[in-house]
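Quick one: co-fold with calcium ion.
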Amino acid sequence: MPEQIEICVLAAGVGSRMKSDKPKVLQTLAGRPLLDHLLATIRELEPDAVHVVIGQGADQVQAAFSSHADIHWVHQRERLGTGHAVQQAAPHLQDDSRTLILLGDAPLISTQTLDGLLQSTADLTVLTVEMDDPFNYGRIIREADQLVAIIEEKDASPAQRLIREINTGVMCVRTRLLKDCLSKLTNDNAQGEYLLTDIVQLANQSGASVSAHKSHDPVEVTGINTFAQLAALERQVQKNIVKELMDAGVQIMDPARCDVRGKLTAGRGVFIDINVIFEGEVILGDNVSIGPNCVIKDCSIGSGTVVKANSVLEGAQVADNCSVGPFARLRPGADLAEGVGIGNFVEVKKSTLGKGAKASHLAYLGDATIGAGVNIGAGTITCNYDGVNKWQTEIGEGVFVGSNTSLVAPVKIGAGATIGAGSTITREVDPDVLAVGRAKQITISNWQRPFKKKD
Ligand code: UD1
Ligand code: CA
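Sure, here it is.
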């Protein structure tokens, strides 16, 4: 039977250096919790077991990952150090397996790097990297090929602090050896904690082979302790995502001003102007053009559609050759058929618009079914809410709704009907008629305007 690989993720930290109550692994990077990045990588390794050590905010972490049935959650009641965290998981680890230890706050580690680490035949192998600025990381002390110790910043001498090879926190160790070393840990150090890094010296003392496996990418092993580090890593990740999109043929006006917080899939000939944020899952068809300052979340946008400046789209389905914006708002359930035009200051929610329908200015369309070729005049409102319930508005094909019309739902307008401007429509309108629901205009002759009173 091949050797079993168990993974132990240390994620009990509260992010004290972020001064935040939120568990650190729930902070987001490119729109996803740190732990989510790590779990995606772990899944590719197909380990035999995954243990995640959680502490303060454990309920929140477990709730955020409740769909991951394969995770074994381990509770670290007191936060006494990284060594103490692994001690909590130890009773659940199989003696004859190998344990791969990962840090929840270093989310970008790649499968390739971990595969490389797992190739090591040593009893204990630590993943290391050279950092230009090694401040705050544990320093690697070598003697020939053997890794003899990891010294934490606070315990390091001035000479040791000059060492640029650091502990990434990732290590792979034979579980029997790990358990033996963990049982010997003390908290006799500058931090007064049980430091996982001390197992390096302990393993050496027991005669085990201990080696360092060097990664060449400092970014993938960066640990996140502060919001400044999180922001720096976010920039780095965004740079990579945007570069990938550009390499695939997407024209991005300014790579530093495009953020993808989720997954963006784009066809050929797509253009993205500055300050655009994509969230969740967004699909752009061929030749889609996105104007500046748009926020687009969980949408699919068809080929040839143009989204103009300052539009906010969420949960919308937009078909081919539509025009949206500037200043349009599409909310969840907005479903636009081919060639639909949504202009400035138009809000659409849970409504379908048929082929070629237009709402070019200042309108609210909620809970409505709007047929093909309909023209919605400026200032039209579907009055869908009576203060308690939401009601539907149905507008048949080819209807012309005059400006400043209130459609009081539930209401139906038959195909081909015309609604006079300024109408308040409360009753069903038959097809092909003209409906006008407004006060009749009257004329008062000899009208005298009021004049200013003299004192
Ligand atoms: C740790 C390493 C350091 C390494 C650095 C890499 C130790 C003692 N130090 O330092 O050598 O260079 O990572 O980023 O291991 N955690 C728990 N329970 C605890 C303490 C920590 O689960 O009681 C978790 C944290 O949530 C975090 C991880 O372990 O995900 C690392 O802890 P952190 O306090 O950030 O260690 P560093 O000081 O960064
Ligand atoms: Ca850290």
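If it helps, Residues 311 and 328 are 5 Å apart (CA to CA).
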